[in-house]
Amino acid sequence: MTFPLWAQAGFWGLVSGSALLLGAAVGYLLNVPARLIAAIMAFGSGVLISTLSFELMEEAYKGGGFTAAAFGFVGGAAAYTLANWLLARRGAKHRKRSGHHQQAEREQVQAGEKPATEPGADNGLALAIGALLDGIPESIVIGLSMLAGGAVSTVAVVAIFLSNLPEGLSSAAGMKKAGRSWQYVFGLWGGIALVSGISSWLGFVVFSHFSAAVIGATTAVAAGAVLAMIADTMIPEAFEVAHNFTGLITVLGFLAAFVLSKLGG
Protein backbone atom coordinates (compact mmCIF):
# COMPACT_ATOMS: atom_id res chain seq x y z
CA MET A 1 0.00 0.00 0.00
CA THR A 2 1.36 3.38 -1.05
CA PHE A 3 0.53 6.34 1.12
CA PRO A 4 -0.13 9.75 -0.47
CA LEU A 5 2.82 12.12 -0.49
CA TRP A 6 1.21 14.55 1.96
CA ALA A 7 0.86 11.73 4.49
CA GLN A 8 4.47 10.68 3.92
CA ALA A 9 5.60 14.28 4.50
CA GLY A 10 3.82 14.42 7.85
CA PHE A 11 5.13 10.99 8.84
CA TRP A 12 8.78 11.78 8.12
CA GLY A 13 8.48 15.12 9.91
CA LEU A 14 7.12 13.27 12.91
CA VAL A 15 9.96 10.74 12.72
CA SER A 16 12.63 13.45 12.73
CA GLY A 17 10.81 15.35 15.48
CA SER A 18 10.55 12.23 17.64
CA ALA A 19 14.31 12.47 18.12
CA LEU A 20 13.66 15.54 20.28
CA LEU A 21 11.44 13.51 22.59
CA LEU A 22 13.91 10.61 22.61
CA GLY A 23 16.80 12.94 23.42
CA ALA A 24 14.74 14.65 26.13
CA ALA A 25 14.00 11.29 27.75
CA VAL A 26 17.69 10.41 27.83
CA GLY A 27 18.69 13.84 29.11
CA TYR A 28 16.02 13.97 31.82
CA LEU A 29 16.09 10.37 33.05
CA LEU A 30 19.79 9.60 32.80
CA ASN A 31 22.82 11.41 34.16
CA VAL A 32 24.62 11.97 30.86
CA PRO A 33 28.14 13.46 31.21
CA ALA A 34 28.37 17.06 30.07
CA ARG A 35 31.29 16.28 27.75
CA LEU A 36 29.28 13.61 25.95
CA ILE A 37 26.35 16.00 25.51
CA ALA A 38 28.72 18.63 24.11
CA ALA A 39 30.30 16.12 21.72
CA ILE A 40 26.91 14.97 20.43
CA MET A 41 25.84 18.60 20.02
CA ALA A 42 28.97 19.40 18.00
CA PHE A 43 28.47 16.31 15.83
CA GLY A 44 24.85 17.27 15.19
CA SER A 45 25.93 20.78 14.24
CA GLY A 46 28.33 19.39 11.65
CA VAL A 47 25.64 17.12 10.23
CA LEU A 48 23.23 20.01 9.79
CA ILE A 49 25.84 22.33 8.28
CA SER A 50 26.73 19.67 5.71
CA THR A 51 23.07 19.15 4.84
CA LEU A 52 22.59 22.89 4.40
CA SER A 53 25.57 23.05 2.08
CA PHE A 54 25.03 20.03 -0.15
CA GLU A 55 21.26 19.54 -0.01
CA LEU A 56 19.22 22.60 0.91
CA MET A 57 21.13 25.46 -0.67
CA GLU A 58 21.81 23.42 -3.80
CA GLU A 59 18.08 22.76 -4.21
CA ALA A 60 17.31 26.40 -3.46
CA TYR A 61 19.76 27.52 -6.15
CA LYS A 62 18.43 25.06 -8.72
CA GLY A 63 14.84 26.06 -8.09
CA GLY A 64 15.06 29.80 -7.56
CA GLY A 65 18.44 30.90 -8.86
CA PHE A 66 21.19 32.77 -7.08
CA THR A 67 19.23 35.89 -6.14
CA ALA A 68 16.29 34.06 -4.58
CA ALA A 69 18.60 31.67 -2.78
CA ALA A 70 20.83 34.43 -1.45
CA PHE A 71 18.08 36.77 -0.29
CA GLY A 72 16.06 33.90 1.14
CA PHE A 73 19.08 32.57 3.03
CA VAL A 74 19.92 35.93 4.58
CA GLY A 75 16.25 36.71 5.21
CA GLY A 76 15.71 33.45 7.05
CA ALA A 77 18.76 34.05 9.20
CA ALA A 78 17.68 37.62 9.95
CA ALA A 79 14.14 36.58 10.90
CA TYR A 80 15.43 33.85 13.20
CA THR A 81 18.00 36.16 14.78
CA LEU A 82 15.36 38.80 15.53
CA ALA A 83 12.95 36.27 17.04
CA ASN A 84 15.75 34.64 19.01
CA TRP A 85 16.89 38.02 20.35
CA LEU A 86 13.38 38.82 21.56
CA LEU A 87 13.07 35.43 23.24
CA ALA A 88 16.52 35.73 24.82
CA ARG A 89 15.39 38.92 26.56
CA ARG A 90 12.51 36.97 28.09
CA GLY A 91 14.47 34.05 29.46
CA ALA A 92 15.00 31.61 26.59
CA LYS A 93 18.59 32.42 25.70
CA HIS A 94 19.99 29.21 27.21
CA ARG A 95 17.17 26.85 26.21
CA LYS A 96 19.61 24.29 24.78
CA ARG A 97 22.21 24.45 27.54
CA SER A 98 22.67 21.31 29.62
CA GLY A 99 24.29 23.01 32.62
CA HIS A 100 22.84 25.40 35.19
CA HIS A 101 22.32 28.26 32.72
CA GLN A 102 18.57 27.64 32.50
CA GLN A 103 18.26 27.66 36.28
CA ALA A 104 20.02 31.03 36.53
CA GLU A 105 17.91 32.44 33.71
CA ARG A 106 14.70 31.23 35.32
CA GLU A 107 15.70 32.89 38.57
CA GLN A 108 16.40 36.16 36.73
CA VAL A 109 12.91 36.14 35.26
CA GLN A 110 11.33 35.30 38.62
CA ALA A 111 13.30 38.12 40.25
CA GLY A 112 12.06 40.57 37.63
CA GLU A 113 15.49 41.12 36.10
CA LYS A 114 14.14 39.92 32.75
CA PRO A 115 10.62 40.47 31.37
CA ALA A 116 8.36 37.41 31.33
CA THR A 117 6.17 36.41 28.40
CA GLU A 118 3.28 35.33 30.62
CA PRO A 119 1.75 36.06 34.03
CA GLY A 120 3.46 34.36 36.95
CA ALA A 121 6.96 35.62 36.19
CA ASP A 122 8.36 32.44 34.66
CA ASN A 123 10.18 31.77 31.40
CA GLY A 124 8.38 28.52 30.62
CA LEU A 125 6.41 30.00 27.73
CA ALA A 126 9.54 31.60 26.29
CA LEU A 127 11.29 28.22 26.37
CA ALA A 128 8.37 26.60 24.57
CA ILE A 129 8.26 29.29 21.89
CA GLY A 130 12.02 29.01 21.49
CA ALA A 131 11.75 25.26 20.97
CA LEU A 132 9.12 25.87 18.30
CA LEU A 133 11.32 28.51 16.68
CA ASP A 134 14.19 26.04 16.45
CA GLY A 135 12.19 23.08 15.21
CA ILE A 136 9.79 24.45 12.60
CA PRO A 137 12.30 25.48 9.87
CA GLU A 138 13.95 22.05 9.99
CA SER A 139 10.62 20.27 9.65
CA ILE A 140 9.39 22.43 6.79
CA VAL A 141 12.53 21.46 4.89
CA ILE A 142 11.43 17.82 4.88
CA GLY A 143 8.11 18.67 3.28
CA LEU A 144 9.79 20.92 0.73
CA SER A 145 12.31 18.21 -0.15
CA MET A 146 9.47 15.97 -1.32
CA LEU A 147 8.26 18.53 -3.84
CA ALA A 148 11.40 18.25 -5.95
CA GLY A 149 11.66 14.51 -6.52
CA GLY A 150 8.35 13.15 -5.26
CA ALA A 151 10.11 11.29 -2.47
CA VAL A 152 11.51 12.28 0.86
CA SER A 153 15.16 13.27 1.12
CA THR A 154 16.68 10.50 3.25
CA VAL A 155 19.72 12.67 3.92
CA ALA A 156 17.56 15.51 5.23
CA VAL A 157 15.53 13.21 7.51
CA VAL A 158 18.61 11.48 8.93
CA ALA A 159 20.47 14.78 9.37
CA ILE A 160 17.58 16.46 11.18
CA PHE A 161 17.02 13.36 13.33
CA LEU A 162 20.71 13.28 14.31
CA SER A 163 20.69 16.98 15.15
CA ASN A 164 17.38 16.84 17.06
CA LEU A 165 18.65 14.11 19.36
CA PRO A 166 21.34 16.22 21.07
CA GLU A 167 19.07 19.28 21.06
CA GLY A 168 16.43 17.48 23.11
CA LEU A 169 19.06 15.80 25.28
CA SER A 170 20.92 18.97 26.18
CA SER A 171 17.84 21.10 26.70
CA ALA A 172 16.05 18.54 28.88
CA ALA A 173 19.16 18.08 31.04
CA GLY A 174 19.24 21.83 31.61
CA MET A 175 15.50 21.96 32.30
CA LYS A 176 15.85 19.26 34.95
CA LYS A 177 18.58 21.27 36.70
CA ALA A 178 16.34 24.33 36.51
CA GLY A 179 13.66 22.46 38.45
CA ARG A 180 11.25 21.77 35.59
CA SER A 181 8.80 18.93 36.21
CA TRP A 182 8.81 15.84 34.02
CA GLN A 183 5.29 16.76 32.89
CA TYR A 184 6.57 20.06 31.56
CA VAL A 185 9.64 18.57 29.85
CA PHE A 186 7.93 15.64 28.16
CA GLY A 187 4.81 17.63 27.38
CA LEU A 188 6.94 20.29 25.71
CA TRP A 189 9.06 17.97 23.59
CA GLY A 190 6.15 15.67 22.78
CA GLY A 191 4.27 18.71 21.54
CA ILE A 192 7.25 19.90 19.49
CA ALA A 193 7.57 16.44 17.92
CA LEU A 194 3.91 16.63 16.90
CA VAL A 195 4.37 20.15 15.54
CA SER A 196 7.35 18.88 13.54
CA GLY A 197 5.08 16.45 11.73
CA ILE A 198 2.48 19.13 11.10
CA SER A 199 5.13 21.57 9.85
CA SER A 200 6.51 19.02 7.40
CA TRP A 201 2.99 18.28 6.18
CA LEU A 202 2.28 21.98 5.74
CA GLY A 203 5.58 22.47 3.92
CA PHE A 204 4.44 19.95 1.34
CA VAL A 205 0.74 20.87 1.11
CA VAL A 206 1.06 24.66 1.14
CA PHE A 207 3.89 24.88 -1.39
CA SER A 208 2.84 22.07 -3.72
CA HIS A 209 1.04 24.56 -5.94
CA PHE A 210 3.82 27.15 -6.02
CA SER A 211 6.49 27.62 -8.66
CA ALA A 212 9.99 26.16 -8.39
CA ALA A 213 11.32 29.68 -7.76
CA VAL A 214 9.08 30.17 -4.71
CA ILE A 215 9.93 26.72 -3.37
CA GLY A 216 13.63 27.41 -3.86
CA ALA A 217 13.42 30.73 -2.04
CA THR A 218 11.45 29.17 0.81
CA THR A 219 14.00 26.38 1.13
CA ALA A 220 16.73 29.02 1.37
CA VAL A 221 14.78 30.88 4.08
CA ALA A 222 14.51 27.69 6.12
CA ALA A 223 18.20 26.92 5.55
CA GLY A 224 19.23 30.39 6.72
CA ALA A 225 17.13 30.06 9.86
CA VAL A 226 18.63 26.65 10.62
CA LEU A 227 22.21 27.88 10.19
CA ALA A 228 21.54 30.87 12.45
CA MET A 229 20.06 28.47 15.02
CA ILE A 230 23.19 26.30 14.89
CA ALA A 231 25.48 29.28 15.47
CA ASP A 232 23.33 30.83 18.21
CA THR A 233 22.25 27.83 20.24
CA MET A 234 24.06 24.57 19.37
CA ILE A 235 27.72 25.49 18.90
CA PRO A 236 27.91 27.63 22.08
CA GLU A 237 26.74 24.66 24.16
CA ALA A 238 29.24 22.36 22.45
CA PHE A 239 32.18 24.75 22.78
CA GLU A 240 31.61 25.60 26.41
CA VAL A 241 32.37 22.01 27.46
CA ALA A 242 34.26 20.40 24.56
CA HIS A 243 36.44 23.48 23.91
CA ASN A 244 39.29 22.64 21.54
CA PHE A 245 37.67 19.40 20.39
CA THR A 246 34.51 21.12 19.16
CA GLY A 247 35.90 21.87 15.71
CA LEU A 248 37.13 18.33 15.12
CA ILE A 249 33.87 16.71 16.24
CA THR A 250 31.86 19.15 14.10
CA VAL A 251 34.02 18.24 11.10
CA LEU A 252 33.32 14.55 11.72
CA GLY A 253 29.60 15.26 11.74
CA PHE A 254 29.94 17.25 8.53
CA LEU A 255 31.85 14.38 6.91
CA ALA A 256 29.27 11.80 8.01
CA ALA A 257 26.45 13.75 6.38
CA PHE A 258 28.56 14.40 3.28
CA VAL A 259 29.24 10.68 2.84
CA LEU A 260 25.56 9.93 3.41
CA SER A 261 24.56 12.45 0.73
CA LYS A 262 26.93 10.89 -1.80
CA LEU A 263 25.79 7.35 -1.01
CA GLY A 264 22.19 8.47 -1.31
CA GLY A 265 22.90 10.20 -4.62
Structural commentary:
By secondary structure, the protein is mostly helical. The chain has helices spanning 5-29, 34-92, 101-110, 124-149, 154-177, 182-207, 212-242, 246-264. It has eight helices and no strands. The longest helix has 59 residues, at 34-92.
Architecture blueprint of SSEs:
Elements: H1 5-29, H2 34-92, H3 101-110, H4 124-149, H5 154-177, H6 182-207, H7 212-242, H8 246-264
Helix pairs in contact: 1-4, 1-5, 1-6, 2-4, 2-5, 2-7, 2-8, 4-5, 4-6, 4-7
Please compute the radius of gyration using only Cα atoms.
Answer: 18 Å
Helix content: over 70%
Query: Please, what is the average pLDDT?
Result: 82
Class from helix and strand fractions: mainly alpha
Q: State the major sheet.
A: none
The global form is globular
Secondary structure: number of strands: 0
Query: Alpha-carbon distance between the termini?
Result: 25 Å
- Number of helical regions: 8
Q: List the secondary-structure elements in sequence, H or E.
A: HHHHHHHH
- Low-pLDDT windows of residues: 118-122
Range of strand content? under 5%
